[in-house]
């Protein structure tokens, strides 16, 4: 192991796994595909098994957009239509082996409001605290948008965060966006695993 290789941090009591937006539209063939996005699925399945074995909570977030969402180009936003409620693109990929008791959170559900982080819609932080969660392991798509926003919001809410580097991929609207997002999350206090 080189000096720059992150050490594995084992889940323990007080931890929760958050899987960000593993939806068909963000995977190869989707309307807003993240390059190499499908590579995170087996890594996250491994983390799911670890959290299941430890009896710890697992959350999956998803974009759950109305057809006229403000983030869509037709509405003046930056993105092509994606993750529209009721479409195959909005479904969590079946390759992700979510247990039946995983918590599913929908975000950006109102036409006029963007929400890259699940902490922006509802009382996600309160739900985590109700479960005595103090540390979050976070992976998913995309590094430079929804993962970044989720990590930064979690830190602002007072949670410790472990960023799962092998389980994230970036959109890279501008070259280097992913690396800049990782640097920002680490500077804000996220640990890396």
Structural features, described:
With about 190 residues, the chain is of the alpha/beta class. The protein has one domain: Rossmann fold (3-Layer(aba) Sandwich). It contains four helices and six strands; from the N terminus they run E-H-E-E-H-E-H-E-H-E. It has a six-stranded parallel beta sheet with strand order 3-2-1-4-5-6, sandwiched between helices. Helix 4 links the parallel strand 5 and strand 6. Helix 3 packs parallel to helix 4. The two termini are about 15 Å apart. The N terminus is likely disordered.
What keywords describe this structure?
193 residues; disordered N terminus; 6 strands; 24% helix; Rossmann fold; globular; six-stranded parallel beta sheet; 19% strand; alpha/beta
> Reading side by side through the largest sheet, how are the strands ordered?
3-2-1-4-5-6
What is the rounded Rg?
16 Å
Number of helices in the DSSP assignment: 4
| CATH topological fold name | Rossmann fold
Please state the overall shape, judged from the principal axes of the Cα atoms. Answer: globular
Whole-number count of domains? 1
Distance between the termini: 13 Å
Helix and strand topology:
Elements: E1 15-20, H1 40-53, E2 58-63, E3 103-107, H2 124-130, E4 135-141, H3 143-156, E5 160-169, H4 177-187, E6 191-192
Parallel strand pairs: 1-2, 1-4, 2-3, 4-5, 5-6
Brief overview:
This protein is 24% helix and 19% strand.
């Amino acid at each position: 192991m080189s000096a720059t290789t992150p050490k594995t941090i084992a889940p323990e009591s007080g931890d929760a796994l958050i899987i960000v937006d593993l939806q068909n539209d963000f995977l190869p063939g989707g309307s807003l595909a993240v390059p190499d996005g499908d590579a995170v699925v087996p890594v996250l399945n491994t983390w799911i098994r670890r959290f299941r074995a430890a009896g710890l909570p697992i959350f999956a977030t998803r974009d759950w957009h109305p057809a006229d969402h403000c983030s869509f180009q037709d509405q003046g936003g930056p993105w092509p239509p994606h993750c529209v409620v009721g479409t195959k693109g909005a479904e969590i990929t079946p390759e992700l082996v979510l247990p039946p008791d995983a918590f599913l959170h929908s975000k950006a559900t109102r036409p006029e409001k963007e929400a890259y982080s699940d902490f922006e819609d509802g009382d996600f932080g309160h739900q985590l605290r109700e479960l005595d969660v103090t540390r979050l392991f976070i992976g998913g798509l995309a590094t430079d948008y929804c993962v970044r926003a989720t990590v930064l919001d979690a830190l602002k809410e007072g949670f410790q965060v472990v960023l799962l580097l092998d389980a994230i991929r970036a959109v890279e609207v501008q070259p280097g966006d992913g690396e800049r997002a990782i640097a920002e999350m680490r500077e804000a206090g996220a640990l890396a695993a």
